[in-house]
Structures are given as C-alpha cells and as structure tokens.
Design a protein that fits this description.
- By secondary structure, the protein is of the alpha+beta class.
- The protein folds into two domains: 2-143, 2-Layer Sandwich (Beta-Lactamase), CATH 3.30.450.20; 158-319, 2-Layer Sandwich (Alpha-Beta Plaits), CATH 3.30.70.
- The protein is 46% helix and 21% strand.
- It has eleven helices and twelve strands.
- The strands form three sheets. The chain has a five-stranded antiparallel beta sheet. Strands 7-8-6-11-12 form a five-stranded mixed beta sheet, sandwiched between helices. The protein has a two-stranded antiparallel ribbon with strand order 9-10.
- Helix 9 crosses helix 10 (248-264).
- The N and C termini lie far apart (107 Å).
Length: 320
C-alpha cells in the first residue's frame, strides 16, 4: 500500500515538473499523434492540451516543416538515438510569437530542438519526446553582435568623409582584380583622378568648403558607378576607380561623362558658389604590367599628363 502511495506521489511530482518546466515538451506516437502537450506549449500556442490529445500534430500546425520533421522523428524511432536542431540551422520549429520585452526586436521565438526516443522496458520505442527551448535572448544577442561586427568591418574599410573605400581597402581590391584578370586573360582599367586647383579652394574658402567639394565629387562618383566597379579615396583630393571588364576606350567615355557632370555642378558653401573641375588618368591592364602598383603608376602618369595639358580633361596611358 505504502509503495503504491509513493508511486502516486512520484507520478504527481513528475507531472508537476512536466507542466511547470520552462521548456516545451511534446510527446508523439509513431503516427504523429500528440500524447503530451505541457503548459509551456499551451501558453505559447494558445491551444489547450485537451484539444490536442490524440490529435495529429500536422492537422493543428499546418506550417510545421512536415517533410523535415517526419524524417527527423522517423530516424529517432529507427536508430533510437537523439536528434538535435539549433536555431542557426532553422530559426524555429513551432512559429510562436516572441512576447518578451527584453528581446522585443524579434517577432518570433527562436528555438533549439531536441527529439529523443522514449525507450520502453522491453527496448522498443513507441513514442518520442520533442523538447522546445526558447533561445530568443541568445539568438538576439548573437545577431546584434554579428551586426555590430559587420558595421565595424564596413567602418574599417570606409573613408568617413566620402563613404568610399579607403585607400587600404581599395588597394586590396585592386590586387584581387589584378590577379583575376591576369589569370583569366581579361581586361579592366584603373582610373586615377583628382580635383583641379584644390589647394586654392582650401586657401580661398577654407577647409570646411574643401570637405564639401570632396563630398560633392564623391557623391557624383558613387552615382556613376556600376555595381561591379570599385571606387576609393586614394588620399586628399585624389580618387581611384577600378572599372572591371572595361577597356581604355570605354573607360575614357566613363571619365568624360563623370567629368562633365562635375564641371556642371556647383558646390554651395555658406552662401558662396564654388565651381570645380577634375582631371583623369586612365590605364588599361596590360599583361606585361609587373604588379598592381605599376598599374596605378601608369594611371598616375596619364593623370599628370592631363594636368600638364591644362587640366579638366582625360588622358589614357597609351597616349602618354
């Protein structure tokens, strides 16, 4: 008698634990009928356990990944081993709304899932238990950290004044492009350009005006680029552009179009109008070019020739 009472007490403790634990607990039979649905699942699904008892889970949750879940559960039945799923692999199994204020940036509950066999005394498995862990806070913190790291990575390679690539990152991209076209026998062009008489702008209007001129030029440059092109601030008022899959003739057309837009623009600073022009140097890749630095030097030579010839024009290295 006492033994029976103890067993009832133990069963009561077990059921109390199942109902109060802060983990979702679902027991399924081999036909995917629900045998246990604890209070965690009731609270987050809005469905009472009595309404799910012996009901097929897919009929009540049509948005469950049925093919995936059947495969996972059947594998657990067959192998009698646990199966796991993390939120990185699949954000959630049950689409539960996230209602925690601390992690309110996420609309759904991120979940880790464990599927375990319930082995009978004779070694057979007729049921499995799915445990649902709310890991929204972990996922939110991880995503926030990754976002912060992504932003830091962007900042580390971006020039703050122009929002173009800084010199270091632009040269890294140039090295990559140099290696690519040398390997695949393709063509690209490098453009170096700077703002004409920029020192006079600073001396006449002040350095804040000079910064506004640089911002204006870089804005027009960004608007002119294709997605595959790479532009950077090389230093001071000088800029570099990698025009991928572009020969010298096409690069010349690009530069002249951009040069015309800049010449037609007018920078307003503290009520004063500042007219600016730029000079361009173009170098199409040649397979006997020693390295990326020599490629830049060829474009610089063309730029120097453009400035010596009166500025506000484009020169191609082959013409120097």
């Amino acid at each position: 008698m006492d033994q029976a009472i103890d067993q009832i007490k133990e069963f009561h403790w077990l059921m109390d634990m199942i109902q109060t634990i802060e983990v979702g607990l679902v027991v399924l039979d081999a036909d995917f009928n629900v045998r246990v649905w604890n209070s965690f699942m009731e609270s987050h699904s809005g469905i009472d356990a009595l309404n799910l008892r012996d009901e097929n889970i897919f009929e009540h949750f049509p948005d469950l990944p049925e093919t995936w879940l059947r495969h996972k559960v059947n594998t657990v039945f067959t192998l009698k081993t646990r199966s796991f799923m993390t939120w990185e692999q699949r954000p959630y199994l049950f689409r539960f709304r996230n209602d925690r204020p601390i992690t309110g940036t996420e609309s759904v509950m991120f979940q880790n899932i464990t599927i375990s066999p319930l082995v009978s005394v004779d070694g057979s498995v007729s049921h499995v238990v799915i445990m649902v862990y709310d890991v929204t806070s972990i996922a939110t913190n991880r995503k926030a950290l990754e976002h912060a790291n992504d932003e830091l990575a962007v900042l580390s390679r971006t020039d703050s004044l122009t929002q173009l690539n800084n010199r270091g990152h632009w040269e890294e991209r140039l090295v990559e492009e140099f290696s690519r076209i040398k390997r695949y026998c393709e063509t690209s062009s490098v453009v170096m350009f700077d703002i004409d008489h920029f020192k006079n702008v600073n001396d006449t209007y002040g350095h804040p005006a000079g910064d506004e001129v640089i911002r204006t030029v870089s804005g027009l440059l960004r608007e002119s680029l294709r997605e595959s092109d790479v532009a950077g601030r090389y230093g001071g008022e000088e800029f570099g552009i990698i025009l991928t899959n572009t020969d010298a003739e096409a690069a010349f057309v690009f530069c002249e179009r951009l040069r015309g837009r800049i010449e037609a623009s007018c920078v307003l600073h503290e009520g004063r109008e500042i007219n600016i022009t730029v000079s361009f140097g173009v170098s199409e890749f040649k397979h006997d070019t020693e390295d990326h630095q020599a490629w830049i030097e060829q474009a610089d030579q063309a730029l120097y020739a453009a400035k010596e010839s009166g500025r506000n024009q484009t020169w191609v290295h082959a013409k120097v």
